[in-house]
Recover the amino acids of this structure.
């Protein structure tokens, strides 16, 4: 009898230790105003269905200001710079969950309008170079790491699968010297994010900035840098597992219903922001293993 009891207790112990934590796929979002998002919730139509199975965790004021507490996990919701707006997180999360119905999906987002890559998102030369790290990079890393820690405490095994990046306008606005360095800076940013998060194979998906009718030498330099960083461009700046999304045909805020910005051809509007998220989800899913 005693022997049977020992066997039962041993089986229970092995069962407890053998239970694996459920894996949850984590996707990161960073950038400036088209990453924070300029889509309006009031302009969303019936086809834009938000999948609440997806979880989201985002930074707070003055970066993002939703109707939800920052730095906490909630079902997928808009997380832009004001509660009435949304970014690519809604279309991205909903479409990716649709494409990966069996996956648990979580999004960590930190973005800040008007910020540049060369200084504010500067990741530093290496992991020891804290002096040159920009404020937005530091906040981004802090947000991601606290979000991951929170998932572990919830009983998950978080695995970073990919990152979305929508940024570049502020670098194009700083003149040719800064804009010419955008490709080099973006490559360094991707490398450093992967180093700091220990995710060497993390997918990195980003969209072209300044769609037509915008035109200038500096804009062309930034967009050319974006093109050259893509892995399929096969240039000295190309980064493995980096993919750029076409955005020139996305609707802009100037054409939004009841728009207060009839001359805004820089920011994607409601449909454009939703579609940007869809395209990013489809690109990510295409390369997931």
């Amino acid at each position: 009898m005693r022997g049977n009891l020992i066997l039962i207790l041993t089986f229970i112990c092995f069962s407890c230790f053998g239970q694996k934590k459920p894996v949850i796929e984590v996707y990161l979002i960073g950038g400036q105003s088209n990453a924070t998002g300029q889509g309006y919730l009031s302009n969303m139509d019936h086809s834009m269905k938000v999948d609440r199975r997806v979880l989201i965790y985002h930074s707070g004021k003055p970066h993002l200001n939703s109707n939800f507490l920052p730095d906490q996990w909630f079902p997928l919701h808009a997380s832009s710079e004001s509660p009435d707006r949304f970014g690519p997180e809604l279309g991205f999360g909903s479409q990716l969950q649709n494409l990966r119905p069996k996956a648990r999906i979580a999004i960590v987002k930190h973005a800040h309008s008007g910020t540049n890559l060369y200084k504010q998102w500067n990741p530093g030369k290496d992991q020891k170079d804290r002096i040159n790290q920009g404020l937005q990079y530091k906040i981004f890393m802090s947000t991601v790491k606290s979000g991951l820690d929170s998932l572990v405490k919830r009983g998950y095994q978080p695995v970073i699968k990919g990152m979305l990046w929508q940024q570049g306008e502020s670098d194009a606005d700083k003149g040719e010297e800064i804009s010419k360095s955008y490709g080099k800076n973006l490559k360094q940013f991707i490398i450093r994010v992967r180093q700091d998060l220990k995710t060497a194979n993390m997918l990195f998906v980003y969209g072209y900035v300044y769609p037509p009718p915008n035109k200038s030498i500096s804009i062309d330099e930034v967009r050319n840098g974006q093109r050259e960083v893509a892995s399929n461009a096969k240039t000295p700046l190309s980064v493995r597992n980096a993919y750029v999304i076409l955005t020139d045909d996305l609707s802009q805020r100037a054409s939004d219903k009841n728009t207060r910005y009839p001359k805004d051809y820089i920011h994607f509007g409601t449909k454009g922001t939703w579609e940007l998220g869809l395209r990013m989800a489809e690109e990510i899913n295409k390369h997931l293993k």
Observations:
- Residues 20-287 form a domain with the Rossmann fold fold (CATH 3.40.50.1110).
- The chain is about 35% helix and 15% strand.
- The CA atoms of residues 41 and 84 lie 6 Å apart.
